[in-house]
Design brief:
InterPro entries: DUF2207, MFS_trans_sf, YciQ-like_C. It contains 18 helices and 28 strands. It is an alpha+beta fold. The strands form 7 sheets. It has an 8-stranded mixed sheet with strand order 10-9-13-5-4-17-20-19, with no helix packed on it. Strands 11-12-6-28-16 form a 5-stranded mixed sheet, with no helix packed on it. β14 and β15 form a beta hairpin. α6 runs parallel beside α16.
């Protein structure tokens, strides 16, 4: 039959395969259907082209696909397949037919059986149609040549012949090489790896590397260049150390020649171990198959100091070849004491850098705190009815809280009430918002800095300062001017932040983290854990601060309280999910002891800084004295009226005394007990006829005489709440600026690879 060229599209070929495969498999009898040879890629039809009956039958090589397995299984009594599916197609003139031992079987048909030859024609045609449709990407051969130096260094040359079809192998292949090992007693270490050269089809080729978990990945090829389909040969040359295993009675080369994590099958694998001159092996063995397998589908030959291992069966994806060569004790130099010490420091550098840096930062902070951060001893606190000398209500809040923070609007509300009591302002509280109105009382330059700033804001607004959402920008500007005036006038007088010492600790922590990043070993699996650790730490800190501020803010409505609790529940659920994901990652095998050192050290650095940020600030000696006086005033403001009356020298309650201390009570957050004490006194005085109903001249809102303490407390707290809620919302979407037995997969080397 004349040679023909089969040219069909993939779709046509697939339809052809689909139509005939079922009928083919069903029609094939369990017999040897023919004996002959192929001509032009098709079974010969004319009897004159058949091989003579007495001729020895050669083995046929068939290229096929997975769906033909059943058909070829039926023919297994007639064929000997010398290569797996994916090998070469039968060539013209090749012999194909019965095994020699089957020639005497009645079912082994001879030439002239046209039914059998028809099946052969159909089968061969099907193979030809299928081959171009499903051309498989495969490693045709993998050769690992390892020269073991007397020093224990391995010089390795890997030759990888692949068949590429542009499926997974588009631009080239990648090769993964493990860098971290674990000993039988659980210790981990790092091997050295020095890539010397990479070639493609005998020519240097672009390549780059990147870190992977416990290893390195070598990408061979260029992202800008597509690899032509066909057969190609890659060759990698590298040097690696710390691979020899030293035992009491022998030294051992245990080498995973191919790696067990290739994405492609390997048709033939070879490993050649060249020992130092004059050294011969005392024992050898090998393992093939998937990771952990103890199969031995290979053979070994020894020629002096050279041991060669070859597989006798193809390796599937994620299967490999590992070899073991034992040599006499001392044949390979053991590491010296200095080398062992250097390796120990290298293996545990995460511990030394991480925990060493953490200890250094902690000692720095501890010594700094002992020097400047410890509070002076507190004095004796006794109730007092006079405000601390020189402290306005706002300054009392500033000293008490060592800054404003969440108490800023409480301090402003206290200042507004103090100015109103002194006759500078009238406070009006309509149905919505609040208004501060200037009186005709002349400006007093002797007023405290905060009160000057508030009066200036009212004067700049034309004498009527409206506090509501519509005027939020003016409220914000007033609040900023208010806090700046007080902090600018009294910075460092009553307490110190010790910012310089904190900056030093943060810089030292950053250096420790940078040292870990540059000199340590941080696997890819640790990076998301570290990211989430820092993110969650910062998030929890900000969230806790927000919740604390929310609940400290007075005059909160029930709806805002419920909203805060709902937000807390939602964010808490999110945190639990994130922490759960972290726990799964941490508990997985991808996190080893060295990674734990990084996680703990970085977490410790963050925690240490957070702790000392809160405790490094300290009151000055003058500030400590004022804090004792403030504590005495607060104690007096919270006493019951009966206890207050029993204090020797205490002034009698009166509207004037109540109003004088009311701003301080608001600043300290105790306006309700102070108002209740006044309410109790006033009720008794009205009943006795010694006082009339109280109606403050400085307040123009709806004022009821019943439940005075509740009304005063509600009024003062709602003033702070109104100011806070009037602040404009900030836009955060835009940026200001940017041991035991061996197995396949065991030993040094290993890894795997794929296409990219």
């Amino acid at each position: 039959m004349a040679n023909r060229t089969l040219s069909v599209s993939r779709e046509v070929a697939m339809r052809r395969v689909s139509r005939i495969q079922t009928s083919l498999i069903a029609a094939l009898p369990p017999i040897c259907p023919f004996e002959g040879r192929l001509v032009g890629g098709f079974a010969a039809e004319p009897p004159s082209l058949l091989a003579p009956e007495g001729r020895d039958v050669a083995t046929a090589t068939v290229r096929g696909e997975t769906f033909l397995t059943k058909a070829l299984t039926k023919l297994k009594s007639c064929f000997t397949l010398t290569a797996p599916f994916g090998a070469s197609l039968p060539q013209a003139g090749e012999n194909i037919g019965c095994k020699p031992q089957d020639r005497a079987r009645p079912t082994c048909l001879k030439g002239g059986d046209w039914k059998a030859r028809g099946i052969a024609v159909l089968l061969t045609t099907l193979l030809l149609a299928a081959a171009p449709v499903h051309a498989a990407e495969v490693i045709n051969s993998f050769t690992s040549d390892v020269t073991v130096e007397k020093s224990g260094v391995y010089d390795v040359t890997e030759t990888i012949a692949v068949h590429a079809e542009g499926d997974q192998i588009k631009r080239g292949i990648f090769r993964d090489f493990p860098l971290r090992f674990e000993t039988d007693d659980g210790r981990t270490g790092d091997v050295t790896f020095d890539l010397k050269s990479v070639t493609l089809d005998g020519q240097p080729v672009d390549h780059h590397t990147e870190s992977i978990t416990n290893g390195i990945r070598i990408y061979i090829g260029s992202a800008d260049t597509v690899l032509p389909p066909g057969n190609h040969t890659y060759q990698l040359t590298y040097e690696t150390d710390r691979q020899v295993r030293y035992f009491d009675d022998h030294d051992e080369i245990y080498w995973n020649a191919t790696g067990n994590f290739w994405a492609f099958p390997i048709e033939q694998a070879t490993a050649t171990i060249t020992l130092p001159e004059g050294v011969t092996p005392t024992r050898t063995t090998f393992y093939t198959g998937a990771y952990g397998s103890r199969e031995q589908n290979a053979r070994e030959t020894t020629n002096g100091n050279v041991v060669t291992f070859e597989t006798t069966a193809p390796l599937g994806p994620k299967e490999g070849l590992s070899v073991v060569v034992a040599v006499p004790k001392g044949a390979i130099d053991a590491p010296t004491t200095s080398e062992s010490a250097s390796w120990f420091l290298s293996d545990y550098r995460n511990y030394f850098i991480g925990f060493g840096g953490l200890l250094l930062v902690f000692l720095y902070y501890l010594l700094s705190w002992r020097k400047v951060g410890r509070d002076p001893p507190a004095g004796v606190v006794v109730p007092r009815w006079e405000p601390p000398e020189g402290l306005s209500p706002a300054l009392v809040a500033y000293v008490q809280n060592q800054g404003f923070g969440a108490s800023r609007f409480d301090a402003i509300a206290a200042t507004a009430i103090d100015l109103a009591v002194k006759g500078f302002l009238i406070i009006d509280e309509p149905r919505k918002g609040m208004t501060l109105k200037r009186t005709s009382k002349p400006y007093d330059p002797a007023l405290p800095a905060g009160q000057k700033a508030l009066l200036k804001a009212v004067d700049d607004a034309g004498g009527v300062f409206i506090v509501d959402k519509a005027h939020g920008s003016k409220v914000s500007a007033m609040a900023s001017a208010f806090t700046s005036a007080i902090t600018g006038e009294h910075r460092g007088e009553f307490f110190v932040r010790n910012i310089g010492y904190l900056a030093g600790g943060i810089a030292l922590s950053a250096l420790a983290g940078l040292a870990l990043l540059v000199f340590g070993t941080i696997s890819n699996a640790v990076i998301p854990v570290l990211f989430f650790s820092v993110f969650i730490s910062v998030f929890i800190g900000l969230f806790s601060s927000m919740i604390a501020k929310s609940f400290r803010r007075r005059g909160r409505s029930m709806s805002s309280a419920i909203g805060t609790l709902v937000a807390a529940g939602f964010i808490g659920f999110f945190l639990l999910q994130a922490l759960g994901g972290m726990a799964v990652t941490i508990l997985s095998d991808s996190i080893d002891a060295a990674d734990w050192a990084v996680i703990v050290a970085c977490g410790g650095l963050v925690l240490t800084n957070l702790i000392f940020v809160f405790i490094m600030g300290a009151p000055t000696t003058a500030g400590r004295k004022k804090m004792d006086e403030i504590a005495g005033l607060k104690q007096y403001l919270t006493l019951a009226e009966a206890n207050r009356m029993n204090m020797a020298g205490a002034p009698k309650m009166s509207p004037q005394h109540f109003e004088t201390l009311l701003p301080y009570a608001v600043a300290l957050g105790v306006e309700k007990p102070w108002s209740k004490a006044f309410d109790t006194w006033l009720a008794a005085a009205v009943a006795a006829g010694t006082a009339g109903y109280y109606s403050p001249y400085w307040y123009a809102g709806d004022f009821r005489h019943q439940n005075l303490s509740d009304q005063i407390g509600s009024f003062s707290s709602s003033m702070a709440s109104t100011m806070s809620s009037s602040m404009p919302t900030q836009n955060t979407s835009s940026s200001g600026f940017s041991g035991g037995g061996g197995f396949s997969g065991g030993g040094g080397g290993g890894g795997g690879g794929g296409g990219w």
